[in-house]
């Protein structure tokens, strides 16, 4: 049974060191990105950084970003420029991504599957990948990163965890400041 690790993106070097230490043989990695779920302004996700992190773990054999029909041409072009294959679907992005994940699970040329999403719907995909002997990596962002999803993968990477914690700390400090300066009725 693989040891589960939770890593913070702000510690990029630690991630690289950890993943490098696990690459006895170069693994063949398939990467699937849930575009509508992860490529949002509030997360500021950099696909090139995801590629670099996963390249430390193994050789990326397939890298795909799933988008809905409302994706702009500019976004599609940016994804292609990052070395990912954009897949635009008029249906449910999650369904198309799950089908692609199942194809990778049954592909002997892929050793590890990395899903970039926060969506708990992909928990069953991770479970099936593990049953078939694939290593699993989940990459997500806060807020809204499913705890069940993080705990279902061999490796879980939270991209903006430290930023999220800092924001929460700032909000808490502000609440405490406001409470300490409230007027007390006499």
Automatic annotation (TrEMBL):
Pfam families: NYN (PF01936)
Span of domain NYN: 28-159
Gene Ontology terms for molecular function: RNA nuclease activity
Stored PANTHER family: HTH OST-TYPE DOMAIN-CONTAINING PROTEIN, SLR1870 PROTEIN
Protein name as annotated: NYN domain-containing protein
Organism: Archaeoglobus veneficus (strain DSM 11195 / SNP6)
Lineage: Archaea, Methanobacteriati, Methanobacteriota, Archaeoglobi, Archaeoglobales
